User: Fold these one by one.
Assistant:
Number 1:
Amino acid sequence: MSAHTLDRTAARSTRRRTDQPGRARPGLLPLAFAAPALVLYLGFLVWPALQALWISLTDWDGLSDQQNFVGLDNYLALFDDKVVGIAAVNNVLWSIVTIVLPMTLGLLFAVVLNRKSRTSPIFRTIFYAPAVLPLVSIASIWAWLYDPSDGAINTVLRTIGLSGLEQSWLGQDSTALWSVMIPAVWVRTGFPMLLYLAALQSIPDELYEAASMDGANRRKQFTRITFPSLRDTHYIVLALSLIESFKVFDLVYAMTYGGPGYSTQVMGTWMYANVFQYFNAGYGTAIAVVITVVAVAAGIPYVRSQVKSS
Amino acid sequence: MSPTTRWGVGDDPSPTRRGVLTAAVAAPALAALSSCATGIATSSGADGLTLLNYEDIDAATLLREQLAQLETDSGISTTVDTVPGSGAAQFPDKLRTRILGGNAPDVWQIWGGQIGQPFVDADLTQDLEEYYGTYGWDSALSTSGIDGMTFHGARHGVPLNVASLGAWCNARVFEEAGATIPSTYDELETANELILASGVTPGGFGGKYGWHIMRLYEYLLEVCAGPDLHDALLRGEESWDQQAVVESFDLFRAWSDRGWITDGALGVAPADAEQSFVQGTTAFTISGPWIESQYIVPSGKPREEFGTFLLPTGHESVRHSGFIEGLMISSTCGAPDDAAALIDFLVQPDVQRSLQNTQSAALEAPPDPEMFPLSAQWAQIREQSEIYTIQDQAFPKAVADSYFAVQSDVLQGALDGPQAARDMQQIVSDWTETR
């Protein structure tokens, strides 16, 4: 029997089962159950997204009633905007640093804290704690630490005789963005650590026992067993971090306001400036659409992997 | 299975499955629709008025006490929403978001010039000409304040504050350094050197957001360009690419290079800079009388430790920077007469005194010299001096931000004076072409 015939037989058998008296056909019932969520989804996500798409094709100032269709002008203007160039480069740098470092540190902490020890839960809490703090509070705390005159960082450098390394951390183009990245890494290390810890606990101990008996040292066990077993987790962490990184707004806005000058502008803050401050809602929304497209593109492999595994 | 048992229809009065499902679908849809519908409507009328401002908590408490009195006397009920500490860089965004969210306040506080103008241009405010006549605001309020709330020749706001900026100094630091209050620009430079030699940074400025350190640059531009050219530059009627502007940028850079302003000023928040001044880390800052009520009084330091003076410019007319803040009525306000009555109540001299306003636009409400001696001193000084428009109100926000970027590049040495002047000319001419 060919595979095709088998499929048809299976389909007939399924139909027979659902046609049995007393058994209700699902019909529109599942849709009705999904409807409340669907309505909310359409009303609060799809409809605003379509509206945003429309606004990005107009010259709306964000306040008045006038919305003139300008086609793709707003998108073409992105290429002439030097701040968009700065913001795009900053977004790429931000993504690289705030993905690679938290992933690496998260994995490192997870491996170290995966051991059975009385202190492990305490350290897990400590490392995860920054992730639950509001970003605006974190921004304020770090801005005080970076204060050029009274901040803890420059004070420590002065105290230990390294006053030559003192900087105006947030007040110069050369250090401002990197200085904002540090709290971002600090905040974002806890999340991958948690995912890696969960994944590490699902790796069977037998694998390590067998490897030990075969003479594999800890480094080999990590590279041959641990790291490959975490492949799915790497994927999830990477995809979610990528989306998160491209949406960066809070820390930059609160710590530097995009400055000095435009040096720490990212796409999110530049979008905000145009929509909410410059009364260029059409242009700002075009930036928002670009951010969304990039974030969605980054999320597609993750979604596909989830669909495949389910 | 009968239809009756399956769907619960017929005589059974209990809720049916179909009914529950229909309701489940309809409820969120109706909720969404109703939120849209109510979102378009504005407040006011039966529920009273809403007033949005940016007062700090103490000032808002005083305001609420006064508004309770208004309600008792006239029945006009007002709810105050305040966004404390948001400042000119952020408050307009909050207001705009609220208007677009369909929850426009009936009355809002806003700065004059280019900050308030977009709301007028978008027809979101009411022309208050009629109420000016009814309440006689022309004779009761400062003329420059009224001018600041006049847009395209129409009065779309009522001035609440005429804020003027001068130098606020730590007299103890000046004294210990052997410096005197300067009466010429050269004397100011001498004072800076003496203060610096005593181990204190002369000027306390915060460059985050751009507008605080701008106060120093606009002063230096006034020194180098003089009143007429300064005004023409702000209006875009003269080219910025000229010697006076180059000199002002060179001077600006020199203040930083010589250590006369806060180290790393570009990364310092304005509030932190003003706090540092009050704590004696810096010798002076450029600010308005609110610094007394908001920073000096809460610090508990004796008022005698501080002083205020007009920054010397070396020109016949010694001017200082200033800006206007006022109240506007929303074009969608359902009770504009009540809103106007509310504004009239707020600008009454006795209410202004109760609100402890040290920069009131009400002519009969100067600062109380017993409660705010420094503000009273400044009020006397400012009367002898004219005002030039503060630069972040002279330019639209996008233009001001480009200008702040030039300031930032000058301080970091990325631009020299001539290049900064050329860049500024480009920024201003781009703006004037589209204006």
Number 2:
Amino acid sequence: MNEEAVKKVILKEDEDYIINMGPQHPSTHGVLRLEVCLNGETVKHMTPHIGYIHRGMEKMAEFNTYKQLIHLTDRMDYLSAHINNEAVCLAVENALEVEVPERVQYIRAILDELSRVASHHLWWSAFGMDLGALTTFFYGMRDREKVLAIFEESFGSRLLHSFNTPGGLMHDVHPNFRKHTREFVKYFRKKLPDYKNLLTDNIIFHNRTKGIGVMDKEMAINYGITGPSGRGSGFSCDVRKVAPYGVYDKVVFREILYPEGDSFARYKVRVDEMQESLNILEQLVDDMPEEGGYTAKMKPVIKLPEGEYFQRVEAARGEFGVFIVSKGEKYPYRIKFRSPSFSNLFVLGPLAKGGIIADLVAICGSLDLVIPDIDR
Amino acid sequence: MNSVVRYFTDIYKGVTSLWTGMKVTGKYFISPGEIVTEQYPENRATLKMEDRFKGEVIMPHDENNQHKCTGCGICEVNCPNGSIEIITKKVPNEQGKMVRAIDKHIYHLSMCTFCELCIKTCPFDAITWGQDFEHAVFDRTRLTRVLNRPGSSLKKKEVKS
């Protein structure tokens, strides 16, 4: 390659000022290195470097049985651990054509929504903190604690609860589960106005996020942006609506869409989604059957019939997909995870281009990246 | 003219949005309502974890130093990370026949991911969750534990009368 071509590939010039944001930078929320090429304070080019905590989960899963590999999916997107578990369980159940009890489907959906609310709590706290509003961190964490208390009571762990298993759940939920979920919905409805007054209506926050990192619908589709980030660009991609799984076709809810595509639209989608999750929770908790057991009858050793299986679910950050190739053995022949944060990361470069470095932090926060989900 | 109006509306908007935000924080400053923080090391005596809390894997022993583990090794097979090692020995039973019994049930807490498969699959309910969560140690080898106590034996099955 001649010198000209080398320059074109690495997109750097001699006089460029290169700064490494990360791997240990508070605003990247994990070990992500952003190589930022600067001209003054303006970002000329941004390259993400990933793989600092790559654990080889897809390969590891090939040596684990279907029950054992559930706990690996917890450790990808740790904030929506339950939703990731559900994706694998649904794929295995669909492959075996097992009918899980309706009660299990209801419990799974309730836990999905609780996880989503807890995940958005943490995102809201950290997003405010990234932009210099430390108060939001305490307020968000205070409300998230209520959800984690429900989790801890039923599953014994707060974050990585491998509670799903192919065919149902590990245990029955705690007797107080329904009561405490109702209490949480009631509690959080009262706290939502605080969220609006503190951050949504704040003029400094508006100036930091409005018109920053504008992503149009076409761009969102081209980059495969799903979840709240995609819906902030008006891309209707909610798997709960597009391809309903579990009991999501029985509940009434609204898909939140904002067409603006800037950081503020992505913020609004998530805050409105918290409200919408509360509406879903109210319906599910009332309809949840009291009887029906917590697991379907499964063989002790699960062997999938030969073939290929795919299942997608709506995780807190977007579409989470599991693709299993089975050769009829108790281990999967190949497993592929489609994680939302991996796709969402690579739009960060084009969005940050031309803005200032402080905007890069705002865009990075509004995309809501979870680094273990990128590296797997 | 227009810019002058915008200048003053911006100031007005800024002050009002600041005031709305300060009202929320001020409200909690004056009347915090429920205290959500815990004084952790000081409240150790009263701190009670949930019954299902996953602190560590333990093997309950009764007052005669007897446990329920037969050394079948199902937990070892089901563990995804190899955090359980079962070492068995041969001991004579009442009829003088040599049978398999547990010598050491080794549990590596440092490798455990708390997936609960060992406890769930144990056919004898020999192991369960312990509520202890203060696992910080200076030496990594101290996280490797032998779950069955020295001199312990298998609990006899209760004869139905």
Number 3:
Amino acid sequence: MDKLFLIIKREYLTRVTRPSFIIATLVTPLAFVAFFVVASLIFSYESDDAKKIAVIDDSGILNGALKDEKGLYFKFEQKPLAQLRKNFKNSGYDAILVLPKIDNLFSKDYQVFYYTSGQSTLETEDHIEDRVSDALRDYKIDALKLERKQLEALNTSVDIEPEPIEEGGKDATNLTSAIGVGIGFIMGFIMYMAVFIYGSMVMRSVMEEKTNRIVEVMVSSVKPFQMMMGKIIGVGAVGLTQVLIWAILIPLLITIAQVTMGFDPQQQMPMGPGAPAINPDDTQAMAMAIMSEVGNIRWSLILPLFIVYFLGGYFLYSSMFAAVGSAVGDDMGEAQTLTIPIVIPVILAIYIMMKAVQAPTSSLAVFASIFPLFSPIVMPSLLASNPPAWQIIVSVLVLIGTSVFFVWLSGRIYRVGILLYGKKGTFKEFAKWIFYTD
Amino acid sequence: MDLILDLQNVVKTYDKKIAVNDVSFGVPRASIFGLLGPNGAGKTSLIRIITTITRADSGKVFLDGQALNSRHPEQIGYMPEERGLYKKMKVGEQLTYLARLKGLSASDTKLALKYWMEKFEVMDWWSKKIEELSKGMQQKIQFISTVLHNPKLIILDEPFTGLDPINTNLLKDEIADLRAKGVSIIFSTHRMEQVEEICDNIVLIDQGQNILNGPVKTIRNSFKQNRFKVDFAEEWKGTLPPGFEVVDQQPDSLVVGLAEGGNSSALLQYLLGQGVQISAFNEIMPSLNEIFIQAVEKNHPQAKV
């Protein structure tokens, strides 16, 4: 036990003190946040040059109804178009907008003309169209003598509110399943990354030790199984450390970015012209509802279970990676061939997870939540949608049983593999090695 | 005899190939023992059994009188032929780690490290990474890691490869020192002149079998052909009486084979009686190299040693 601890300590400390680890751990969140800041800035970028536009309003109904905003300044002109065009260069205008007379109030189409020397930009066109459309809407409401309140009443937003059949059953809101999906995705992806990044870290490290020939010295002091477990646990602890630091740093950096740059990702989201304006009060209410829903999720159950699945999945897959690493030595190409059968279930699991999280009670979801090669990725994504207790218990028991079995199996392969040189590791060989006596 | 290591009828098979076939031998305490054999003879398999890396299929191994068990690796120091250290680790950390894995306490490790690193004058490499050291320097560190935990039995596989003559001598002295302190050393090599020089006893393994075992002197005696070489201070062209077979005659030297029961004194007396000046008179002892080749070829006619 002491020796196992020594190995874990070395595996952990040599990794977390490596400059490359420290850089990756600190720079990744920075890069992540920087990417989002830059992306938001790009989306929220608007043309910053002011444009003065002469407006010729043939019907005279929109005079003063076009707001001067976002670098667009409108001036209603009485001069005829021909004169304006002739003196355009010295007029100080950037463009001329001609609003033809409206014959029919019930017409749904309205064409305006935009004269400009240069290229008219898409953004400017959008803004002008929006503003003319808004002004016309107001004009039409007045001209047709419509009641504003009645008009607003026409837009009904429909929400489904889920209710339990049984009296006193757990009441969920319409947000519950959406948040379940969100959290499920996050958990599923964390698992996926953990398996890949840290599993292959275990493999590379085993290959390095075999190539270095340090194993000969090591196995004359400790059991190969201790070596393998020490490596798996040590690298797993490195993984947890890194994920934990990211989980703290990323939200922190986003908050700092918001405060110092005064930008709010939610408001900067690009919205189509048709999107209804969000009332700030609504946003706040929504945020409160989400917070309370997140608080309603049974974290006391989900978090321990998440750790169980994290460990189960990590042990299951990383032990297989260790076995492959022990068999190949320094041949990275051969290692990649041998890891294909390990990688395929992980990739299948992530696809199943994406489907299952939207239909948590489907037979695919139930099957994948119990099948041990998929369950570490699929089940955490279903936990927020409250699967039945039997499903969780069966899934956890099957996963623990399988992990223990795979760690044992990999240990059998590993102990033969690390001491064997010049022999190619094939699956047929692996099967033989499992049954070798010590 | 007081044996530190005793192997009795050890057998090990890998996947139908018999690596060790019914091998028995003993290693006397506080001696240097040569484990010899051609490539692929089963030496590594034997070493792996002794260091408890693998277990024998059948037969018994005793270390210091006890059947081999999982606590024994702490009493054995093993330096494999293929040296291996963590390249990115610092010398001090690396040695500490390996000693602690051998069951040495943290405080004992510190003391042992100070002793050995000062002895080998490598104290100022403490915070150098292994990859920054030369091959010979790495070898020194590897040797320190082998003896740091004060083992009863040390197994050295080709310990002198890659060492310059000065460091080779340093290591030889160290090995002799360890023996004087009661440590037993198993020394595996192909370099027979080194075996002749430092080993007390040997075992010769071929095709997984013990084909020759015993003290170096006894073995050489048993292989000698009763031949004597006489060097003359002047030219001599005489002949020998019957009972002496001339193997080789040069103007200033003579190699003579004695018949069964023949007496070397009789030869010397006869030559002295001839009035010739003799500068040297030696029995020709077979080298271990010759013995090695002879024994392996006898056991295994196709072998190319």
